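ok so I'm stuck.
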Amino acid sequence: MNSIERRFRIISTNNPHWAAYVCLAEAITCRNYNHKTVRRNFLKLVPKEDYEADIEKEIITELDRLSNTSMDVQNRG
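replied:
not stuck anymore, here's the structure
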């Protein structure tokens, strides 16, 4: 189990009503993961039924942005 998956499992356990995408977004925010790592974990952890295949690239792009956002930007809202 990698660090994203471990964080994802903790977050999803603590927030059982959150969607898998939201748990993944929370797990990677401000962690500076590369695109390949974000994509691999998205495909592994988020069920395909939860998103349309034609917007997969857009979703991963947004997750990349969240991963590479600095904590200062997050705190400013």
